[in-house]
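seq:
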Amino acid sequence: MAAAAASTKRKIWFARLADELAAREGVTAAVRDDGRTAFEIVPPQAGTGGTAEFALAPPDGEFAALKDDCARLRDVLTRLGIAEGATYVPEPPPAARPGGRSMTPQMREARAARKREFDAWQKLWRTLRKAEEALDVEYEIAQMKDYY
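struct:
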């Protein structure tokens, strides 16, 4: 199927996906000459190894190319150690210090910031899955229109 005009739903989901990805800590985004949005992703967890580059096509491309982009993004996130559906497990609190204070307000805020970032990456996973689902539904509808 030739590059069909993108539906409003497809544009919305892919815009959400690009926005959520660009908003993550350690992610830089730039629009390339070919219209694709390029992302450089530095994993949020230290020690997971390396960075990754990923380019997201505009939503008016072919279905197969968009599905490939989604699959590549899933692979990149998994390779970087950002697991889908993971449960946040904070590091154990420091041993209690003399005087009964185990955590300072700055430590609590740092922990809360790590949890918010973890939750944001999980939201990105959910958005990716919803974008793929919307793309699948639109493809099936296009196939039915062609058939009937």
